[in-house]
Automatic annotation (TrEMBL):
Statement: the UniProt record of this protein carries the keyword 4Fe-4S: no
Keyword Transcription in record: no
Stored Pfam families: Aldo_ket_red
Name the record gives this protein: Aryl-alcohol dehydrogenase-like predicted oxidoreductase
Keywords: Oxidoreductase
Domain NADP-dependent oxidoreductase, first and last residues per copy: 2-114
Top-level taxonomy: Bacteria, Bacillati, Actinomycetota, Actinomycetes, Streptosporangiales
Length: 126
């Protein structure tokens, strides 16, 4: 859909840009209420090796930049062609702070490529 939207001038509004909070906790083993109660997490994120590579890279860039992983993940999303605005499910003030800070976090082309490299397209989840 992304190439079609770009061709037609239709902006994209990504749903769950932090992967239900999984990317916000990249590099952390912190247990959350949502992780323990959200039945969809297990069905959406099942490719353990690929998901781990992505999480490790987000955590690495966050450490190097000394910012929370959520800022790195949102900054990456915001720099994708056609993205107008991600849907951020903020439930805490710091979630809003991270989303706002991500706008000004200028990832380098090398960092953007590093973050994107392990991603593999997924089947549509129902």
């Amino acid at each position: 859909m992304n190439p079609l939207c770009a061709d037609q001038g239709v902006g994209l509004i990504p749903w769950s840009p932090l992967a239900r909070g999984v990317l916000a906790r990249a590099g952390s083993e912190e247990a959350t209420t949502r992780a323990g109660s959200d039945e969809r997490i297990g069905t959406l994120y099942t490719d353990a090796d690929n998901d781990r590579q992505i999480l490790d890279r987000v955590a690495q860039v966050a450490r190097e930049r000394q910012v929370p992983p959520a800022q790195v993940a949102l900054s990456w999303v915001l720099r994708q062609p056609g993205v107008s605005a991600p849907i951020v499910g903020a439930t805490k003030e710091r979630h809003v702070d991270d989303a706002v800070a991500a706008v000004d976090l200028a990832l380098t082309d090398k960092e953007l490529a590093f973050l994107a490299e392990p991603y593999r397209p997924r089947a549509v989840a129902h």
